[in-house]
Amino acid sequence: MVDKNLFVFKKMAYAICLLLVLFFHQGCTPPVKTFVKAQSLQNYSGNIGTLNTSQQNLGNVLLLNTRTKRAIFLRKLSVNESDLDKTPTITSTTESFSSELNISFDADIPNAVKVGLSSLLKEGTKLTVFDYSRITVKDPLAVVRGGTSLIEDLKRYAGRNDIVFLFVGSVIPAKSVEMSYEDSKKTDLATNVLKYGDYKFSITYVSNEDLKRVTNQAYAFFRPVPFRISLDQTGTLIISADDQYKENLSEYDFASALE
User: Fold this and answer.
1) Which of 21, 99, 148, 176 places its Cα 20 to 30 Å from the Cα of 131?
2) Which residues of 187-196 are buried (b: 16+ CB within 10 A; e: fewer)?
3) Exposed (0-12), middle (13-18) or buried (19+): which is 101, by Cβ within 10 Å?
């Protein structure tokens, strides 16, 4: 009888030992610090608009050289208050972040785990804009056509098929813009901790510091209105909407596009 009880005791002790090992491995091991950075935020374009890394203002007119991939500031046109539409402040909006991510870890983990987690992060990373509104020019082409000095500047480029023109017809001020991970697999919303396999990862979005600088220095986003030009038989400049516009602004150097 004593031997049987001893056998049961040993089995229970072994089971308790296993549970303690699992507890300390799963619950007490600190999460792996994981750093996520956007490969580039330069003129990142999402559903809400183009991230204003180039500090554009309402009324700016830009020239895009599609051959050299350079953006150039031409003029800032004045816009009357009566020509604007302004929305009330919107609490927040969230959309998927579609740019490439650079992901690094502060510990050695199996490559398969790295690949799996990186895939999750790329699928689940969101961009959220908080407390924002839209300021939009009601008739942007009318403002462009009314810019007398601009008309003379534009005439110099008539006939060029490597030039695209943009008018900043809408800007979006916001309190803040943040990247985060949103998915059912997140285990702790408050600390941004994600569980994957036998590991836990503490996610830090390094790019949030860059996003904070953008929102502090300028409008958070802008929306460009593309237009094209031509000359009629009398030499009068014709300005019309560019329905063929398809440029990716993140590919352009905006160093010369500042006011």
Assistant:
1) 99
2) eeeeebbbeb
3) middle
Phi, then psi, of 3 in degrees rounded to 5:
-60, -40
Q: Inform me whether the pLDDT recorded for 169 exceeds 60.
A: yes
Q: C-alpha angle 239/240/244, rounded to 5°?
A: 130
Name the residue type at position 4: K
Beta bridge partners of 48: none
Q: Which residues 6+ apart lie within 8 Å of 13 measured at CB?
A: none
Dist. CA 26–CA 61, nearest whole Å: 57
Q: What is the pLDDT of residues 65-117, one digit of tens each?
A: 999 999 999 999 999 999 999 999 999 999 999 999 999 999 999 999 999 99
Instruction: Could you list the beta-strand ranges (E) of the chain.
Output: 32-38, 50-51, 60-65, 70-76, 84-86, 90-96, 101-105, 125-132, 135-137, 163-172, 174-181, 186-188, 193-196, 199-205, 221-231, 237-241, 253-256
**140 SS3 class:** helix
Given CA atoms 155, 158, 160, 161 in this order, what sign does their dihedral have?
Answer: positive
137-147: string of b/e by CB count within 10 Å (b at 16+)? Answer: beebeebbbeb
Enumerate residues 6+ apart whose C-beta is below 8 A from 172: 48, 49, 129, 132, 133, 134, 135, 219, 220, 221, 222, 223
CA 63 to chain centre: 23
